[in-house]
Design goal:
This protein is mostly beta strands. It is 7% helix and 42% strand. The chain is built from one helix and five strands, in the order ββββαβ. The protein starts with 14 loop residues before the first strand and ends with a strand.
Length: 73
């Protein structure tokens, strides 16, 4: 488990979790590297950035980042 607010520790393939206003996980995605995540928002799949300087920045995901999980096989 990667603790909250340590986005610098993320590696490509990590599952990222985002919370709602109640503090519950309500969305997940995969970290791609270079501050980008891939996630599904019906009816499409999006690649968005956690970097405020990026054109595909998503403030909601930056603000609501809860943590991440790295799965190793």
């Amino acid at each position: 488990l990667i603790m909250p607010w340590l986005k610098e520790a993320l590696l490509p393939g990590d599952v990222v979790y985002f919370m709602n206003a109640a503090g519950q996980v309500d969305h997940t995605g995969l970290y791609l590297g270079q501050d980008e995540i891939i996630h599904a928002t019906m009816p499409r799949v999006c690649i968005q950035s956690l970097n405020p300087a990026a054109t595909n920045y998503c403030k909601r995901f930056d603000n609501d980042f809860l943590g991440a999980k790295r799965f190793c096989w």
